[in-house]
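User: Design a sequence. Structure:
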């Protein structure tokens, strides 16, 4: 806590895993920056419309009453993460976590503007002159532009993006929209531009609790100490007589590490599994004519028992993994069942509490209800309302209602019955709302009818 913060100047490592990270950054950001511009049924394909309180996800409209689906998404995400962590350790951290992805984007800009590690160190340690100001200003302007665009994109998922874009062009953005664009933009700038590895080391809760999902067969980045030690500078080509290990102590694995650790000291919680040290060490080994894999993806078991790749793969299926997979599959099946049986109609019945019951001209007793009918499909529906549960019970008003696409409508429904049809007090009744053109779309709601 009391050590002076040392800025990390990570060198970019090129290689197989860096290529995978590029692919992941492109894929995740193509989805994030792109999906909100897609159209579906003449509206934004993915829109979490907070003002209308409706979530549009392609062909489905979710209402606040569908909160269960949010719970399901959270459970599925959590178990998918547990499963991936148990099998492959911090794969998510290294390739798909937003903190990694945005840090990567910001670092690419930094590399492009300021140069690689040595150039950056030289620039930071050099005097403040016009060149330094120009380079720093360019970097921060580019970072700022990316951060604001990220904030704009996020807000575009909650407020129709085309209107937002028009308002931005005409300087007509609302106060809240402006606040959230700059708040999230500033947050991105701070996390990916300034704090970087500090977020992973000190703020991320996942880094702390993931160790409970690890076991000796979890894939981690490891240094093969048996092969690498004793380390030291050596000449090109293998020299089996010297008794030296393969590690030439070049320090490159430390220089490329975004969290500034030395993987040769063993597994550390700061390691985000980015595999930059694997890429760079493979390059070093290649130049020395030695086999790759001094630093590699492996498992504790494999290192201790000298297991090969096939045996490592054979250890993937184990009780912990099966447990996470079973829960995940179960939750997926349940959610698929819920989705396929989802009826695009919701009805709330509210009894008029200002008047319990009253006698009308023909001697019958009347109760009044408000039916809130929600059409969650994106087409207009005409619904027929009926009521049963007491002999001779009938609606005294409108028996059908037309509700526009993806809208809700309230209708006041007086219900009448003769006094001798039930007991004094509350009597259970049932409202039925059925779509005229599709009788499968029907909902029954219970209510009670008060007799004097
Ligand atoms: S990159 Fe490889 S050879 Fe160089 S110090 Fe690290 S482990 Fe040793
Ligand atoms: S030690 Fe971990 S965080 Fe550092 S470069 Fe290697 S994999 Fe990445």
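Assistant: Done.
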């Amino acid at each position: 806590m009391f050590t002076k913060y040392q800025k990390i100047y990570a060198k970019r490592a090129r290689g197989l895993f860096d290529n995978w990270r590029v692919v992941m950054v492109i894929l995740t950001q193509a989805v994030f920056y792109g999906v909100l511009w897609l159209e579906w049924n003449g509206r934004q394909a993915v829109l979490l419309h907070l003002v209308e309180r409706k979530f549009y996800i392609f062909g489905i409209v979710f209402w606040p009453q569908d909160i269960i689906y949010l719970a399901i998404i959270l459970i599925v995400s959590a178990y998918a993460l547990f499963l991936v962590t148990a099998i492959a350790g911090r794969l998510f951290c290294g390739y798909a976590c937003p903190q990694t992805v945005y840090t990567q984007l910001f670092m690419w800009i930094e590399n492009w503007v300021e140069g690689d590690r040595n150039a950056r160190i030289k620039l930071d340690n050099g005097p403040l002159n016009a060149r330094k100001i120009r380079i720093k200003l360019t970097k921060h302007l580019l970072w700022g532009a990316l951060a604001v665009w990220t904030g704009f994109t996020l807000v575009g998922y909650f407020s129709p993006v085309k209107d937002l874009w028009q308002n931005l062009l005409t300087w007509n953005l609302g106060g809240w929209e402006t606040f959230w664009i700059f708040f999230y933009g500033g947050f991105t700038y701070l996390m990916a531009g300034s704090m970087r590895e500090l977020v992973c080391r000190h703020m991320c809760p996942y880094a702390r609790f993931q160790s409970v999902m690890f076991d000796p067969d979890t894939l981690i980045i490891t240094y093969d100490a048996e092969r690498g030690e004793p380390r030291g500078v050596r000449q090109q080509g293998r020299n089996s007589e010297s008794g030296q290990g393969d590690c030439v102590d070049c320090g490159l694995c430390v220089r490329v590490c975004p969290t500034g650790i030395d993987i040769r000291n063993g597994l550390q919680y700061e390691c985000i599994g980015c595999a930059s040290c694997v890429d760079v060490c493979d390059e070093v080994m290649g130049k020395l004519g030695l086999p790759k894999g001094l630093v590699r993806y492996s498992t504790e078991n494999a290192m201790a028992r000298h297991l090969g790749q096939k045996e490592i793969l054979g250890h993937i299926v184990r009780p912990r993994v099966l447990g996470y997979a079973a829960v995940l599959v179960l939750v997926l099946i349940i959610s698929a069942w819920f989705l396929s049986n989802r009826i695009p109609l919701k009805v709330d019945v509210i009894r008029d509490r200002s008047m319990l019951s009253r006698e009308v001209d023909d001697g019958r007793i009347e109760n009044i209800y408000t039916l809130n009918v929600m059409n969650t499909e994106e087409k207009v529906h005409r619904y027929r309302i009926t009521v049963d549960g007491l002999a001779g019970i009938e609606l005294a008003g409108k028996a059908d209602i037309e509700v526009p696409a993806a809208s809700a409508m309230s209708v006041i429904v007086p219900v009448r019955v003769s006094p001798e049809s039930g007991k004094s007090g509350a009597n259970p009744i049932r409202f039925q709302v059925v779509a005229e053109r599709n009788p499968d779309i029907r909902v029954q709601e219970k209510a009670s009818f008060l007799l004097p």
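The pocket of iron/sulfur cluster (ligand 2) is lined by residues 221, 256-259, 261, 263, 271-277 (CB under 6 Å). The mean pLDDT is 91.
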